[in-house]
Amino acid sequence: MTMSKIEGFTSLSSLERRSAGKYYLFILVNVFLGSIITGTAFQNLNALLHESASEVPVTIGVSIPMKATFFITYIMVDGWAGIAAEILRIKPLIVFHLKNAFLVKTEKDREQAMDPGSLGYATAEPRIQLYFLLGLVYSVITPFFLPFIVIFFGLSYLVFRHQIINVYNQEYESGAAFWPDVQRRVITAMVIAQLLLLGLISTMNAANSTPVLLALPVLTIWFHIYCKHRFEPAFVKFPLQDAMVKDTLERATEPNFNLKTYLQDAYIHPVFRKHGCDLPLAVADEENILVPTKRNSRMNTPGESKRGSDREDTEN
């Protein structure tokens, strides 16, 4: 997040998207590629030093399925245990009791101590993408790997659905701005899985089928380019239909509003404006409506607190 702030991003959604991209590259290189390459090098160090260069791809191709046991253990320790920790929330519970014991003096302090925060997309989403990658890579190479992935995604769906609806606060509505990044990472995982499958098959007796499988990454990349041109503009540009609705509402509420004069200093700090320019009602009344959830925090609810209302009732 600090690196993204240094780059100049200010909004929370853009900061989390950029941070998620950096974190995904880190775990892709460090966890996935690093484990495969270094594990293969150390396990077959003697063979790599004494065999010819033409036999190195064969050794690496044979060693890739052997790393499935490591990633199965990784999913059980990091994935399954992470889901259990998510539903238990032991760390926030300990932090709350510490704050409640030493920092809470008023009802507002108690509300702040009980605030669950929001779901950390910058770290949660790249980890999900890593498990997508592992499932795609080993679905053909080591099918025994799939039940562990299926159990993880099943538990993740149940737990995170409950947490998002009933526990976490929603800090912003991004308008599905994360989806293009998610789709691009899924396509990248598919291409990596297909290339590793090609490398593994080329080391076996089925090397004649390798040229046929070359069409897989080509078609996958073509599909990504098609989706990018067909659907991505809806995520990065304001829909024309919604723009027409806002223009119609603005003309109906403020028929004499001069848009050209308003835009001259609309993006200047109010202190530096030469003259005041009131916002039209259609612009001033806009609200960023969040997706409703079952959890309602009193911190975000306008009005008096429950304790204040009880005190007024007593006085009356």
Plain-language structure description:
The chain is mainly alpha-helical and 316 residues long. The chain has one domain (1-275). The chain has 17 helices and no strands. The protein has helices at 2-7, 12-43, 45-50, 56-63, 68-88, 90-102, 107-114, 121-141, 146-166, 179-202, 210-213, 215-231, 233-236, 240-253, 259-264, 281-284, 306-315. Residues 300-316 have low confidence and may be disordered.
Q: Please give the number of β-strands.
A: 0
Taken as a percent bin, the fraction of beta residues is under 5%
Mean pLDDT: 80
C-alpha Rg, in Å?
A: 27 Å
Number of domains: 1
Principal-axes geometry comes out as extended
Order of helices and strands: HHHHHHHHHHHHHHHHH
Please tally the helical runs, counting DSSP H or I stretches of 4 or more residues: 17
Q: Which regions have little confidence, pLDDT < 50, spanning 5+ residues?
A: 300-316
**Quick one: biggest sheet?**
none
Helix share, percent: 55-70%
Helix-strand makeup class: mainly alpha
| Amino- and carboxy-terminal Cα gap | 51 Å
Task: Give short descriptive properties of this protein.
316 residues; mainly alpha; 17 helices; disordered C terminus; transmembrane; transmembrane helix; CSC1/OSCA1-like_7TM
Explain briefly what this protein structure is:
The chain is mainly α and 316 residues long. The chain is 69% helix and 0% strand. It has one domain (1-275).
